[in-house]
Amino acid sequence: GAVVSQHPSWVICKSGTSVKIECRSLDFQATTMFWYRQFPKQSLMLMATSNEGSKATYEQGVEKDKFLINHASLTLSTLTVTSAHPEDSSFYICSARDIQKVTEAFFGQGTRLTVV
Amino acid sequence: GENVEQHPSTLSVQEGDSAVIKCTYSDSASNYFPWYKQELGKGPQLIIDIRSNVGEKKDQRIAVTLNKTAKHFSLHITETQPEDSAVYFCAASGNTGGFKTIFGAGTRLFVKA
Question: Does residue B40 contact residue B104 with C-beta atoms inside 8 Å?
């Protein structure tokens, strides 16, 4: 089946530093990847849509300069949380859409970010 | 944009009983409705999905129904087991919005042994 690998699974960083999270589709090509944020006991909130070779589309209220997204290849998208603050602490999850299966999306295992 | 509502937020059942989770969606253009199971500290796992040209789909103990006219879809789990305990999310996506997957608020299912 389709596998999406997200790395790291957890990270602790100091306030003011930047953190990069990778999302890879291992056995399929993904022209589109999505980044979600999930607070404890809440649903997944879409942050942005990442398209290979073009700029990401951000949802309303999401700061594009704070959450930098790069989708340089059909199998890799990265999310960089810049100048992280404690309120950025959250569970970040990516999903990737298989180029062959337009509607289905497969999720990574998530990254727990803690900013201290 | 699309909005997905999910009920109940919490559901507690006895092992062996059935569990039903209901969702409604707002965008009539949505045509794909996946259901995800999320365990603590993990990403969502697709358990079943249904497309708008189908009214019902079943996979062993799990079934999903879709009423396009009413914009309702439901998840049915029969013969529940303790390992079914998790958070379940319904979702909707479609041609509009670039096939973004919009999630419901989630249902925390407890199956008591």
Answer: no
For residue B4, what is the nearest residue in chain A, using CA coordinates? A43
For residue A7, give every residue at least 6 positions away whose Cβ sits within 8 Å of its Cβ, in sequence order, or none. A21, A22, A24, A111
pLDDT tens digits, one per residue of B11-54: 999 999 999 999 999 998 899 999 999 998 899 999 999 998 88
Residue in the block written with tokens 């089946």: A1
Q: CA B9 to CA B7: how far, in whole Å?
A: 5
Q: Are B76 and B20 in contact (CB under 8 A)?
A: yes
* Chain A residues closer than 8 Å to B100 by CB: 34, 46, 49
Residue A55: which H helix or E strand, with range?
Answer: none
Q: Are B33 and B92 in contact (CB under 8 A)?
A: yes
Inter-chain CB proximity B98 and A57 less than 8 Å: yes
